[in-house]
Amino acid sequence: MLIEYPPSLLQQAEDSLKGHHLTGFVAGQGPKHPKIMLIGEAPGREEAKTGVPFVGASGKELMKLIEEYLHMTREDVYITSVVRRRPYSIKRVKDKKTGAVVEKTPNRTPTKAEVYAYARLFDWELDQVRPKILMPLGNTSLQRLLGPSTKIGSLHGQILHCPIQRAASDHQGYVMSDQSYTVIPMYHPAAFLYARKLEPIVRHDWEAIAQKLDQLETDKI
Asked: Which SMART domains does the record match to this protein (predicted)?
């Protein structure tokens, strides 16, 4: 299920982002009230092209991890991101074969302003989906939830029970929620695609989290 957002929230985000280099649109996807909401930073090229979250190289790695360690499929989890359009930069480079200058549009990390533009939409989505666990993947989504001083390098693989940031009603930044959430920060799968030395750490985190979640379920019985 692809979620349908209120037009007013979509328009507010669009109005805030005029002049920004963003393309495509990718809605969140998955069941309501899932065990886990996976939260990325923004769509990449493949996601912007298809309109489906996490279908590129990183998405394929992520699906392998949740299947191998959590014994879940894409249909079992809710998948979204804190920015809904693909951020890109414009670079002019010389073609090695022809010598001609060509324009390229690689992915880039979204800015804080771009994340904030979608803050109310993300809050609304979270209230609709109501997952048991929030799993931010990488620094951008982690900092959207827990603030700019948090780092994935120090929090990855931990189970946190804490308030999260929500957009302030006066449109001036964020406030911490009254409600506490279960948050499990994890490395973005792209991290070990580009730095293979991280792969053992990432796999250890997923294995440990799978065991802890199994134990939590056992304790409830």
From this structure: UDG, UreE_C
Q: Give me the CATH number covering residue 79.
A: 3.40.470.10
Q: What is the dihedral sign for C-alpha 32, 33, 35, 39?
A: positive
Contact 164, 181 (CB under 8 A): yes
Q: What three-state secondary structure class fits 124?
A: helix
Q: What is the mean pLDDT of the chain?
A: 92
Query: Across the strands, what pairs with 186?
Result: 137
Domain count, the chain: 1
Domain that holds residue 109: 7-220
Any domain includes 2: no
104-119: pLDDT as tens digits: 999 999 999 999 999 9
How far apart are alpha carbons 118 and 127 in whole angstroms?
A: 14
In whole angstroms, give the CA distance from residue 175 to residue 147.
10
Q: What angle do CA 165, 169, 172 make, to 5 degrees?
A: 75
pTM passes above 0.70: yes
Name residues of the chain where pLDDT drops below 50. Answer: 221
Hey, which residues does 133 pair with through a beta bridge? 36, 182
The first and second tokens of residue 142, run together, are 């982690």
pLDDT at 221: 45
Within a domain: 176: yes
Give the other-Cβ count within 10 Å of 146's Cβ. Answer: 22
